[in-house]
Amino acid sequence: MDLSAINPVLLIASLMVAATPILLAGIGELVAEKSGVLNLGVEGMMIVGAISGFAVAVETGSPFLGFVAAAFGGAALSLLFILLTQVALANQVASGLALTLFGLGLSALMGQNYVGVKPPPTAQLQMPLLSDIPVIGPILFNHDLVLYLGIAIVAAVWVALKFTRAGLILRAVGESHDAAHALGYKVVRIRILAILFGGACAGLGGAYISLVRVPQWTEGMTAGVGWIALALVVFASWKPWRVLLGAYLFGGITVLQLNLQAAGVAIPVEYLAMSPYIITILVLVILSKDKSSAPASLGKIFHASH
């Protein structure tokens, strides 16, 4: 066992990369749930985003176009959820589960020709003076644009929900769709936009896995990240900064257990691989006592005829 092989600077920098897919998917789902919609199809939207982004990046040679395609791919799959839940008024839980199963199957079909293909590398954002700062530079200022975009989206969602009229309307729809409808707000339209935003964020998160975190395509490569993102929103009590914190916690434990495996720690590999999920669930259980934060209309069907 050689713990000296673990570089703390590299560990924290890797943590930010590992956390980004969960962060993007989580913040998108938070906005959807704030509007009163429970979309369990996050995993499906992420994996479709992963293959859409990967395929476009490989064919065009541009990771940027890949990420754009991934956002569109995730949003396109969320249209199916919109059709089921907002138009046909189907059960949201069943529709979300169906979306995940459909997404996993569709991505396997789309990705048949991309197994073993290497995508073009995603460029790091150059910050000449900042990235040269000892310790802090390599940790904070030596990443790609999408990682910073994820943090910026969290900040933007926090500002929008807390300080803007649009955020207030979104929260009003999530708390009581009937009251919001009575005040003249277009409940279905607001929810559709929130679901599309959630789908685009999940797609981006998926592409971050296939283009940056593990630059390759393998079937089912999201490996439960979408489900962790869903749990994260609850553990975060629907607060954007807590989603960031939770994503970094999960990402940190994931990276740490991989480093411990490499260092030859005398703990069975299976236990180490389980640890991110177990610790996240424990934190979730401890913090989920704060049930008052859940939007009151979450998962309820809105009938426009009311």
From TrEMBL:
UniProt entry keywords in alphabetical sequence: Cell membrane, Membrane, Transmembrane, Transmembrane helix
Entry keyword Membrane: yes
Bilayer-crossing regions: 6-25, 37-58, 64-84, 96-115, 135-161, 192-211, 217-236, 243-260, 266-287
Top-level lineage group: Bacteria
Localization: Cell membrane
Entry annotated with the keyword Hydrolase: no
Recorded topology in the membrane: Multi-pass membrane protein
Primary localization class, coarse: membrane
Protein name: ABC transporter permease
Native source species: Sedimentitalea todarodis
